[in-house]
């Protein structure tokens, strides 16, 4: 019985180790990505280089970022400009007993200022896998041209969602066209 239990724990850890966040850029311009691990440097997720260029996703392009399952907070910072000076959208997550995630507009325009560089675009974060749709393991939907109340706008707001550790993939779609959003049966409420 102990062997079976140990195998189950090992299988859960292995599945989390191979989890990924797939970012799809439907925007008409490049987007730039930096990753901050446990409040550390903002690194290129492909190289781990803190001083190097950010990961660039071309229009219509896609990138997959492996999750870090060490229980600490990770922030994937997304910008429309190479230098990250015109604002960021943050996809934040932590993997411990579950997969916790949120979108944040905090520091979206600049340090301490709420706002989102993707305000005029539809953005969604959609968990996939066996646990998707249960409890709070539901998509975060941010429709264009309105404040996204499903994303953090205040530090003390409760916007974090949690998924079972069997939900090991996340689709983060930027600048989704209205007709594509509606094809998936997602409405525009936030």
From TrEMBL:
Signal sequence annotation: 1-19
Signal found in the keyword field: yes
Keywords: Signal
Pfam families membership: Bys1
InterPro entries cross-referenced by the UniProt entry: CetA-like (IPR006771)
Name this polypeptide is given: Uncharacterized protein
UniProt source species: Venustampulla echinocandica
């Amino acid at each position: 019985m102990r062997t079976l239990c140990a195998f189950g724990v090992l299988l859960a850890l292995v599945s989390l180790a191979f989890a990924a966040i797939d970012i799809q850029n439907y925007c008409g311009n490049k987007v730039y990505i930096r990753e901050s691990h446990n409040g550390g440097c903002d690194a290129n997720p492909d190289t781990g280089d803190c001083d190097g260029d950010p990961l660039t996703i071309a229009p219509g392009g896609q990138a997959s970022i492996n999750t870090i399952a060490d229980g600490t907070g990770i922030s994937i910072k997304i910008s429309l400009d190479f230098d990250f000076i015109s604002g960021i959208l943050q996809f934040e997550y932590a993997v411990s007993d579950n997969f916790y995630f949120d979108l944040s507009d905090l520091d979206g325009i600049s340090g301490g200022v709420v706002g989102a560089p993707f305000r005029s675009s539809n953005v969604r974060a959609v968990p996939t896998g066996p646990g998707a749709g249960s409890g709070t393991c539901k998509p975060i939907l941010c429709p264009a041209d309105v404040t996204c109340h499903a994303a953090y706008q205040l530090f003390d707001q409760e916007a974090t969602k949690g998924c079972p550790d069997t939900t090991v993939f996340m689709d983060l779609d930027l600048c989704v066209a209205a007709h594509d959003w509606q094809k998936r049966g997602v409405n525009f409420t936030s």
